[in-house]
Design a protein that fits this description.
The chain has five domains: 62 residues, Helix hairpin bin (Helix Hairpins, Orthogonal Bundle), CATH 1.10.287.610; 229 residues, D-amino Acid Aminotransferase, Chain A, domain 1 (2-Layer Sandwich), CATH 3.30.470; 71 residues, Beta Barrel (OB fold (Dihydrolipoamide Acetyltransferase, E2P)); 162 residues, DNA polymerase, domain 1 (Orthogonal Bundle), CATH 1.10.150.20; 71 residues, Rossmann fold (3-Layer(aba) Sandwich). Helices cover 37% and strands 20% of the residues. The strands form seven sheets. Strands 14, 15, 16, 18, 19, 21 and 22 form a seven-stranded antiparallel sheet that branches. Strands 2-13-10-3-9 form a five-stranded mixed sheet. A four-stranded antiparallel sheet has the order 5-4-7-8. The mean pLDDT is 87.
């Protein structure tokens, strides 16, 4: 039996690794997300019941879960040098002259690569298994972030068994986020009332520094490799190394190019300065390297930079142009953004006629007026931004812009929370929000409707099959319409209908989260349904009622009341109820115990034996209650690793503290 299980585990691991390679390296997936998830679930179950068969290169190791208080220091075997920057053709020609002066008459050529705007990392493999990953740090030493890097699916945990490939090697590259992934993540954080990130690079840097690898696993990080070092085989050139990296299972840039002269290098730089916005990720220049590794060694390094490579950065892109008008744009989650309508101006390889103005406060702070001559700046974003005003050129007829009271798309009343810069439209039926809200409702943390991804939602909305999340439960009446669409057959339609029907069993808290009420994440949704056990009670709740709950402040209370005050949203809720979606909290099977019954618990820090949600369920199953903040009414504080301010406040108030072992003993005594 053990032999057959061991064979099945290894077969599953190999299948999943192969599918990862096809998806992340070749961009040619051969199975659906659902089929992939079923393979992973089966492997997790087998490894759970047979821990003796666990392996460090198993795909299940990507989920994270280990928490560390600090990162150990790693000394790089070869220093991770930083590149010198050049910003002009003259400077890059100077670099070329220095290379020629050193190499003399010896022939050489360059390899040009895109300069990803991410975070440099190093990966070490022994016997083809990923054993250690580190940040660049100061170039000599960096932080050991192995557990965080294991969560990035484009980083192979096991090298592909290519013939004559090295077994021990170091790979370097860049961890980064694609713009679309970054935007989706920020939208979800905004909807849940969490702080949003400034840009993809800062987000990637902050994510790699997180102490909880499970949280890292939830972030959409990617990886691209550009450096290979090994003592197992003789390596000759950078271009050959990139091909070898790709065959070993590492993602590499498809846009790298060999250049025989500095003129070809400059042409490559000019091409990508114009076309960089067509890429799904940010770049801030190109990297020029002498291809031959032997010649790289001859050229050597100065200070912390190699003499054989240089970063050829893109120039800042700015232009002045008249601001013709300011229009309002409604985002997928209801955020209303002012957009500048500009007199078309050629900037960074394309003509710009629109640019973001962020919000009302930004317009006021820069004193931007309609008909002003504004400064437009084009970075990595698809839509450029207005970064300033040339007030010396201000015209007499320049008009101050004032925000309207209603949404430009659906004419519902818009609002702004106190202390926030953005205005919002709360109407779930607003045409501009349809796709984003349906996607959130169907997401894994909400109704978890398998097969209803972004592409399907786009297709159904475009063909008029859905206008809001309630329309999902009427799709069975549109079977023939769906079958007439490209890519749909009887089996795929039935699978979707089955997934939609199964979603009706999701608990009330996940429905509340799925409604997309601003500032309502999963924990607040659970808190709401614990205290308002039917949708009717929640709709009728006043701001005073809501703020009486620990963990609910004025902003969240206002958001809930405002959402249910909109008749569009009420109609959607009524349709969901009529469809059979769970809109009441089922009574939990509670087994009151002397130690837990009617006691208030606060959880702080991370437990190694269970998730916070599992701990809450265990407490509630024995008659206790989990609250979000420490007060004199708190009976116990359960303290896990990296506990924060709640731990300190509990000590100040003299509230009994339970470390993880005491908490487990308490649970064991009552089971």
């Amino acid at each position: 039996m053990n032999s057959s299980i061991e064979k099945e585990i290894e077969s599953l691991r190999q299948k999943i690794l192969d599918h990862d390679y096809r998806y992340y390296i070749l961009a040619q997936p051969t199975i659906s997300d659902g089929e992939y998830d079923r393979l992973m679930h089966r492997l997790q179950e087998l490894e759970k019941h047979h821990p003796e068969l666990a392996a460090p290169d198993s795909p299940t190791q990507r989920v994270g879960g280990r928490v560390t208080k600090e990162f150990p220091t790693v000394t790089h075997a070869v220093p991770m040098l930083s590149l010198s920057n050049t910003y002009s053709e003259e400077e890059v020609r100077d670099f070329d002259r220095r290379v020629h002066d050193t190499l003399g008459a010896a022939p050489f050529h360059y390899i040009c690569e895109l300069k990803f705007d991410g975070i440099a990392i190093s990966l070490r493999y022994e016997d083809r298994i990923f054993v250690q990953g580190a940040t660049r740090g100061d170039g000599i030493q960096g932080d050991d972030i192995t557990q965080n890097l294991k969560t990035i699916r484009s980083i192979p945990l096991r090298i592909r068994p290519v013939r004559s490939a090295p077994r021990t090697l170091e790979v370097r590259g860049e961890a980064f986020m694609k713009r679309a992934d970054f935007q989706r993540m920020n939208e979800e954080r905004q909807l849940a009332g969490e702080k949003t990130f400034v840009n993809p690079r800062n987000s990637a840097a902050g994510t790699l520094k997180l102490q909880d690898s499970k949280l890292v696993a939830s972030r959409p990080l990617n990886f691209v490799s550009y450096f290979l070092r090994s003592d197992d085989m003789e390596l000759t050139g950078q271009f050959e190394n990139l091909k070898l990296l790709h065959s070993l299972g590492f993602p590499t840039s498809e846009h790298s190019q060999t250049c025989r002269s500095i003129e070809e290098v400059i042409a490559y730089w000019q091409k990508w300065e114009q076309q960089r916005d067509e890429l799904p990720y940010d770049i801030d220049g190109i990297v020029v390297k002498v291809n031959s590794l032997r010649q790289q060694e001859l050229l050597g390094a100065v200070a912390k930079s190699p003499r054989w490579a240089v970063a050829f950065k893109f120039a800042s892109r700015q232009a002045e142009t008249p601001l013709k008008a300011i229009r309002l744009q409604v985002g997928r989650l209801g955020t209303i953004t002012p957009v500048a309508e500009l007199e078309p101006v050629f900037l960074g390889g394309s003509t710009v006629s629109r640019a973001t103005l962020h919000n009302e406060e930004y317009i006021r702070e820069l004193d931007i007026r309609i008909h002003d001559i504004v400064i437009v700046e084009k970075g990595g974003d698809v839509i450029p931004k207005v970064s300033g005003v040339n007030k010396e050129k201000r015209r007499a007829g320049a008009k101050i812009f004032r925000f309207p009271d209603t949404c430009p798309e659906c004419h519902s009343k818009i609002f702004r929370f106190e202390g926030e810069a953005n205005y919002y439209c709360e109407n779930s039926d607003c045409p501009a929000q349809v796709k984003g809200r349906i996607g959130h409702f169907a997401s894994r943390g909400a109704m978890d409707i398998e097969g209803l991804g972004e592409a399907v939602i786009d297709q159904f909305v475009q063909d008029g099959l859905m206008k809001n999340c309630a329309d999902l439960y009427d799709l069975h009446d549109r079977r023939e319409n769906i079958l007439s669409l490209e890519g749909w057959g009887e089996k795929s339609v039935q699978n979707l209908f089955t997934a939609i029907e199964e979603s009706k069993t999701r608990p009330f808290s996940r429905v509340v989260y799925g409604l997309g009420i601003r500032h309502i994440g999963t924990s607040i949704a659970q808190l709401l349904v614990d205290n308002f056990i039917t949708i009717e009670q929640l709709i009728a709740a006043t701001e005073t009622d809501l703020q009486s709950l620990q963990g609910i402040g004025p902003q969240i209370a206002e958001s809930v009341v405002r959402f249910f005050a909109d008749q569009h949203n009420i109609r959607i809720v009524h349709r969901l109820k009529a469809a059979g979606v769970q809109l009441l909290e089922k009574k939990k099977h509670v087994r009151p115990s002397q130690q837990f019954s009617n006691k208030n618990f606060v959880l702080t820090g991370t437990l190694s034996s269970m998730t916070r949600d599992e701990a809450r369920q265990r407490i509630e199953s024995q008659g206790g209650k989990v609250v979000s903040s420490v007060s004199k009414n708190t009976d116990f504080v359960v303290v896990g690793a990296d506990a924060g301010s709640k731990f300190e406040k509990a000590k100040t108030l003299g509230i009994p503290l339970l470390d993880e072992q005491k908490f487990l003993n308490m649970l064991q005594n009552e089971s």
